[in-house]
Amino acid sequence: MTAEEAVPEDEVAAPSPPLLLRDPLPPVIDTESALADYCAKVAAGSGPVALDAERASGYRYSQRAYLVQVRREGAGTGLIDPIAFDDLTALDAAIGDAEWILHAATQDLPCLAEVGLRPRRLFDTELAGRLLNLPRVGLASLVEHYLGRSLAKEHSAADWSTRPLPEPWLLYAALDVEVLVELRDLIAAELEATGKSEWAAQDFEALLSFTGPPTREDPWRRTSGIHKVRGRRALGLVREIWNARDEIAEQRDITPGRILPDSSILDLASSPPADLTALKQARVMRNRGPRRFVSQWHDAIERGLGMAEDELPRSSPRRDGPPPPRAWAEKFPEAAARLGRAREAIGSLAEQHDLPVENLLTPHLVRGLAWEPPEPLSAEAVDAVLEDGGARPWQRELTVPALLEALASG
Which ranges of the sequence are coiled-coil (predicted)? Predict the structure, then answer.
């Protein structure tokens, strides 16, 4: 952009004012008496309850909560150190059947359940933002969109297992829940105005049974850069070294990459050292962290090298479902045609109802139907497949007729 094309200074949008705490920053609750006092306030409070949790994902193996933030009208904000207590069931009882307000509920529900906190009703501001097809649905973006305030997120990736927690981190944590009740009301009003309140209610209801992401088969295959590994023997070495690292990480509650980076696993698997002496001299053992566990790496390499051919992992993971769609056009043209029609139909419906495609219907359900339509094909049969796959009633009502037509054409 030339100087002549530059936007005049007086036309540049001023940054939004920062979101500030309305109440003084409360002390961390880390004693039984302080927790009992706050639980009594929550029980006597009114309206929904805003909750959030901070983990130490980049530092710890576990996904446990290291801080739980709570806010309710009449109770104020509570910053609770869950590590100081056996559980938080007293808080759960104090909340009772009041509605929870969470942002990105699937991130926090498992670690909150771990300490005894389980919602009976909830409202997820991130999911609601997706149903409204907002361009950005992070908490800071929603605060900017609805409240015209900026919300700093610089401590989101901090090591929340640190003790004592620094005051700037606590300020950040308190802001995350202080704004949620107001945000929920504004978003709920827009859901109502756009006719999407019932859709949101059904999606929120489905979240009540969420316990965490599904367990991955062969999680070692997610080693970064594994596509560069050649041969089943090398893959076996990746698996053995990855498993050794995972065991150490779990025992010490340290995120695996801080014990041995993925790149080092690939180096050892691609060019395994001949013996323990050679391993100690390897480039990847120069750092103190990996070197502390050199005997475990050596044992893993020995196991990988000593495996019989039929014990080695397959070059490609086993698939229970259909193959990747990119292979359909050449080998399964009829299925590819069905998938193309189904995707087009779902895309058109999503545009019509101002929804992201994936929130109207998850892509894996569309792929599954296109790969193997129910026989005999009928609206009832398609609806049953979608219901078994977790689609909510509102999603099935909108999509079954279009999918039925797409599957029957051709």
Answer: none
What would the mean pLDDT of 200-212 be, rounded to a whole number? 96
| CA distance linking residue 133 with residue 194, whole number of Å | 11
390 vs 13, residue with greater confidence: 390
Please name the CATH architecture into which domain 14-207 falls.
Answer: 2-Layer Sandwich (3.30)
Bridge partners of residue 99, in order along the sequence: 121
Residues 302-347 pLDDT 10s: 999 999 999 999 988 777 778 888 889 888 999 999 999 999 999 9
Q: Quick one: 325-408 is in which CATH superfamily? A: HRDC domain (1.10.150.80)
Domain ranges, ordered by start, for the chain: 14-207, 219-311, 325-408
Q: Which helix (H) or strand (E) holds 99?
A: strand 99-102
Report whether 77 contacts 71 (CB < 8 A): yes
Cβ count near 84 (within 10 Å): 14
How far is residue 305 from each of residues 211, 261, 271, 278, 280, measured CA to CA in Å? 38, 21, 11, 15, 18
Measured between alpha carbons, how far is 410 from 333 in angstroms, rounded to an integer? 11
Comparison of pLDDT for 381 and 323, the residue scoring more = 381
Instruction: State yes or no: pLDDT of 299 exceeds 70.
Output: yes
Please state whether 354 falls in left (phi above 0), alpha (psi between -120 and 50) or beta.
left
3-state class of 255 per DSSP?
Answer: coil
Per-residue pLDDT, averaged over 129-139, amounts to 97
- In sequence order, what DSSP letters do the residues of 141-166 get, joined into one string? HHHHHHH--B---TTTTS-TT-SSPP
> What tokens does 347 get?
């895309």
